[in-house]
């Protein structure tokens, strides 16, 4: 029997019951490439939820104000704004096709009435301003209502325009374009806690930008070897510390994380800390390095811990301990005996992301077959849930799923061989304060909430 | 003496068997090596990484195209087979052969 916990943001103690809330996107199975969701991110208040797709488009959802009468559910997320962030480009000089796919979206904390976010594709980062317009000036002296200019000789009196209310219009406009700073493909952007600077990371370099300055960025990490033949690892993700504006981390394809302090030197090629779990050399196989590649790194909200995701597991590291993670959670260990076919169909290179809940007590990550997993760090219990339209009755509690690794399959279990490896959940996001999660399947966005009452 | 050697040999065999039994990863590795005997020794090494860094490379040489056009004048330019996905220097590519790179004019279905 599960107990229902009502205080928001908590995940520990008693188990949460997750319910379907909404699903966005087309129902048809034939997925256009442009509709593949490539990033999902809540803003700092959780009121806004942004998605980016392979077609370079951004869709922002806004949570409606809670309905006081219907207190059994939190506000729904409805479309607030949508715009084309990036377009496909061709670099003629390098004969290189530049995809418009949005790799990451990061929100700035709100400073005034407008909202700001950074969105990036492989080469260019853009700062977008999203603002509301709910009134417009009417009664111009020199213009007709339809915009045509009046014949000035017919103007005999002076009229001052007055602002009148209008239907809410949400406008997105690009305020800054940060281009031409990356030779390789951008995998991460992260806004500093100073709210003035941010970093962008590609396979071999990390640059530091000021949000106001587009014609200049500082290179703070460069791991490109003098001879490319000697290349052994690439940068896979990077993030600024949530509180210390001088600290950031970056992960590598070899499973290491380096913590750098920008006060130490201008070029942070020498790390301050190196986080690496020692490997038993007798266990090493052809796949070892590939599955140890870190696909995502996220600091806890507290800043005390960081979480990394590699192909088969999620690891929690204490920033004070470099030689091993403090917690390791197996996401889908049953895939270890399928690595050969996963290498052949390229799934072994899938980049899963991970996220923390608001209180850092539960972590979540995606898997195959549209399954996603949550690990409660306090109770040490985990759960597997499925994002599927079959469960889409609001307030119906989701049924936990179980994968049968070998042997006799129990009723309601799924065998490893029946898993659909085309249905991957790579991107998930957790509301910063409440138990509301956004889970992206290939082309649909699911929103789940914990059961209220 | 020979008894010792045969003992050592069988101990090694047993460890190998144990490895295959206890490590699913090593069993998968054996499967892969059986299917692709020429697979490189260093899987995470530079070849694989360099391929990753080169993502997005497309080859259309306008110089080749224009020179060929000038040479051939009246003759028909050989065009790519319709199902060719990669344009290389083996034939004269035409701008029509390159996949179209158009921005999405359609709104996202998430906003529908």
Automatic annotation (TrEMBL), chain A:
Domain of life: Eukaryota
Protein family membership: Belongs to the phosphatase 2A regulatory subunit B family.
GO molecular function annotations of the record: protein phosphatase regulator activity
Taxonomic lineage from the root: Eukaryota, Metazoa, Chordata, Craniata, Vertebrata
Keyword Lipoprotein among record annotations: no
SMART domains listed in its UniProt record: WD40
Keywords: Repeat, WD repeat
Keyword Ribonucleoprotein included in the entry's annotation: no
Gene3D superfamilies: YVTN repeat-like/Quinoprotein amine dehydrogenase
Name of this protein: Serine/threonine-protein phosphatase 2A 55 kDa regulatory subunit B
UniProt GO cellular component terms: protein phosphatase type 2A complex
TrEMBL record, chain B:
Cellular-component GO terms for this entry: cytoplasm
Primary site of residence: cytoplasm
Stretches with biased composition (Basic and acidic residues): 12-32
Bias kind Low complexity: ranges: 1-11
Keyword set, alphabetical order: Cell cycle, Cell division, Cytoplasm, Mitosis, Phosphoprotein, Protein phosphatase inhibitor
A GO term for molecular function: protein phosphatase inhibitor activity
Pfam families found in the cross-reference section: Endosulfine
Segments of this protein annotated with the region Disordered: 1-48, 74-112
Subcellular location: Cytoplasm
GO terms for biological process, alphabetical: cell division
InterPro entries: Endosulphine
Protein family per UniProt: Belongs to the endosulfine family.
Subunit architecture: Interacts (when phosphorylated at Ser-62) with PPP2R2D. Interacts with SNCA. Interacts with PPP2R2A; the interaction is direct and this interaction inhibits PP2A activity.
Job of this protein: Protein phosphatase inhibitor that specifically inhibits protein phosphatase 2A (PP2A) during mitosis.
Designated name of the protein: cAMP-regulated phosphoprotein 19
Organism phylogeny: Eukaryota, Metazoa, Chordata, Craniata, Vertebrata
Gene name as annotated: ARPP19
